[in-house]
Automatic annotation (TrEMBL):
This is Exosome complex component CSL4 C-terminal domain-containing protein. It is found in: Nucleus, Nucleolus. The lineage of its organism: Eukaryota, Fungi, Dikarya, Basidiomycota, Agaricomycotina. Its main location: nucleus. One of its GO terms (biological process) is RNA processing. The keyword Electron transport does not apply. SUPFAM superfamilies: Nucleic acid-binding proteins. Keywords: Cytoplasm, Exosome.
Amino acid sequence: MLSTNTVLPGQPISLPPRGPAPQLGPGLYHRDGQLRASLLGVPRFEGSTLKISRVQPHTPVPGSVVIGSVTRLSPLQALISITVVDDVPLPAGEEFTGVIRTQDVRATEKDRVKIGDCFRGGDVVRTQVVSAFVEAIISGE
C-alpha cells in the first residue's frame, strides 16, 4: 500500500515554510508556480536537493489488492489485465493477468454464479488475490 507521504505524478509538493529553497532533483518540476512530482514516489531530501524516490511495483501475492480490466470471458471464468498492485500502478506496457473463477465471485450459492451475468468485457474490477500461480516457460536446446 502507498504511504501517506507518497505523491502521484502531477501532484503539488509542499515545502517547509522556512528555510532556503531546495535544489530540484529527479522526479520534480515547476508548473504554474508550484513544485510538482513527475514520478510516483516519496519526496526525500538528500542534503539540499529534493528528490523523488520511485515506488517500485511488485508481483501480486495472496492478499494483494489489485485493479484491472476484464479482457475475456468464458462460462467459468473472467480474465483480467492487472494494472495496479497494492495501490502501485505498473509501468506502461507491463501488466499481469488474473483469473476470476465462478467459485471466487461470492461466498454462497457458488454453483449458481454465471460469469456473463457478473462481468462484461472492459469492466474495471478491484479485487483481492486469493492464490497465485506462476507459470515458468523453460526452453530446451
